Here is the input.
Amino acid sequence: MAKSTMSRHLAVLKQMDIIKDEGKLTLTDHGKELAKRYEEESVLLQKWFGQYLPECSEQEKHDSAQNMVVALTPEFKAKMLEKIADMVQKNSMYDQIDSRGTLEFKDIVEYMAPGDYPVAFVIQKTEQSKDDSPFSMADRGFEHPAVLNVSQDGTGVLTLKPITIERRNLMEKILYSGKLMKLEYETKSDVFVPAGGEDGRYEIPADALQYTYHKEERQMIGSVKLKMYAPLANKQLHVRTAALSILMHGFW
Here is the structure.
């Protein structure tokens, strides 16, 4: 590079308050802050390259990251890096749990932001019945989806809202309707306890569920056994056990 060109570049950096000349060229406070931010952005990009372009050399990833952090406009770069940071975090989480089969809620809640998450779920039979369907009638007895609330303290609550379901007796040509009267869930001690809740809703602590990670699909499934009490047409109490499974997808 010609000396005149170098002088012009240095003059621009001085005007931008990035460097100063005090007998020797040094970074200003603003320049140091900028260099620190560029380095952090470069490290993030290199992690991202490493996850999606493992075939590239470390030098290639380093040089490409360095070029990107200075070439992109600040607004576009901020939006892009926000997305990339989220992807890197998710992939890091997947890497940590890839080798583990069964998980507890405390193992995954650290990757979840506080708030309400709509949760798809199914309730399947655990007892033999006359029909071939694997689904319990209780699957239609709740509003879909359920809601998983994650608190600031890292605890979680799964809320189910029961609804009235109808069933027609074809022999008697009578339409029966009913609503769940009581719900219990199985604890880690293999004991069923009542699900609390307000306004007719049932709440199950998120740590009562057992979580299984399926590596190939990158899906997390939480499950717990339920005991449900519902009225029968003859006014007797109908008690059944079933397995509740929630699908945790797109939470991170």
Remarks:
- The CA atoms of residues 120 and 145 lie 5 Å apart.
- The mean pLDDT is 85.
- The domain at 3-97 is CATH 1.10.10.10 (Arc Repressor Mutant, subunit A).
- The longest helix spans residues 29-52.
